[in-house]
Amino acid sequence: MLDHIREVLFTESEIEEKVKLLGAAISQDYREKELLLVNVLKGGVIFLADLIRQITIPVVIDFMAISSYGPSTEEFGIVRLVKDLEESVSGKDVLVVEDIIDTGLTLTYLLRNLESRDPGSLRVCTLMDKSVRRIVDIPIYYKGFDVPDVFVVGYGLDYEQKYRNLPFIGVLKKEIYYPEE
Ligand code: IMP
Ligand code: MG
């Protein structure tokens, strides 16, 4: 698996440092609040698992799963809710925890959906921001890293469902995407 990686963008310890900072900021900002962390499966689970252990106030976690369609299909930009939350959102201080924001289409759908359930507050925490590819503007309150326009894997993020278990974030070699070249 390691020989498929062209470059490491963020090492295990760089990620750890960043997650600590985010956890401290969230703990400070949400003290005496009713914090509900909403995670988007599956890419965000590793980040969430590490983040909650850096949060020093009580938290409740819940999960949503959505499926989106690629630019090659007619349904580009359409997002479908595959798994809904179990917790009620009404009146809670909701923080959406994402792995990476790319075009922003997925999160736009999700935020609109959550907003309609009347949360007390609604913010976004993302580990990575690939802002050069943004199509719709997303207000990001907590951000880990800015990333350039490259496809990244590891630390929860996949390419064809693989590489999620890499402890760092890296870029795949070109021949992995285009094996015939
Ligand atoms: P968006 O709707 O374009 O913002 O897509 C966001 C989702 O696409 C993320 O939550 C990821 O699951 C996935 N994604 C976007 N960029 C990458 C990447 O570089 N590597 C792996 N997954 C990605
Ligand atoms: Mg995601």
What percentage of the residues does DSSP assign to strands (E)? Answer: 25-35%
CATH fold name: Rossmann fold
- How would a textbook summarize the main sheet? 6 strands, mixed
pLDDT < 50 runs, ≥5 residues? none
- Small molecules bound in the structure, each named once: inosinic acid, magnesium ion
- Helical proportion, percent range: 10-25%
Number of domains: 1
Q: What is the level 1 CATH name?
A: Alpha Beta
Tally the helices: 4
Order of helices and strands: EHEHEEEHEEEEH
What average pLDDT do the residues reach? 93
Number of strands: 9
Structural class: alpha/beta
CATH architecture: 3-Layer(aba) Sandwich
Termini Cα gap: 20 Å
Strand order of the largest sheet: 4-3-2-5-6-7
Name the overall outline: globular
> Radius of gyration, rounded?
16 Å
Detail the topology: elements first, then pairings.
Blueprint: E1 5-10, H1 12-29, E2 35-41, H2 45-52, E3 59-68, E4 79-83, E5 93-101, H3 105-115, E6 121-129, E7 142-146, E8 152-153, E9 169-172, H4 174-177
Parallel strand pairs: 2-3, 2-5, 5-6, 6-7
Antiparallel strand pairs: 1-9, 3-4, 8-9
Helix pairs in contact: 1-2
Bound molecules: inosinic acid and magnesium ion (MG).
Residues 43, 68, 98-107, 130, 151-153, 157 line the site of inosinic acid.
